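Aim 2 progress update. The chain analyzed this quarter is reproduced below.
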Amino acid sequence: MNDPILTALQFNQCISNHDLESLTSLMTDDHTFIDRDGTIHQSKKVMIDNWKQFFKMFPKYKNTFEHVRVKDNLVVMLGYAYWSENQPYDPAIWTANIIKDLVREWRIYNDTLENREILNLV
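Predicted structure tokens:
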């Protein structure tokens, strides 16, 4: 088994590289993505289609993490998303639930004091 942090960082690298094939290989079949609004996108199949569309809409998108920590299978990452030259710094918090070296859940939160407290980042 790999380190859960390594799996989360690999998953993120696939997002930043827009590498859908490798991204897909790191998802569980029951993979869930939860966006900042709390909307749940469930299943690997759904997320393959969603990531395809996302990468077309935001060809320069990438995430940068400045702080990463793990507790059991939950990896918490603090950093920022880069969308474009017009929006180069979008602070966010991500979590990844890692099961058997695969990402079961990838979630993004607004970087707020409340979310930092919930995720024990303060």
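The chain has one domain: 4-118. The chain has a mean pLDDT of 95. These observations will guide the mutagenesis experiments scheduled for the next reporting period.
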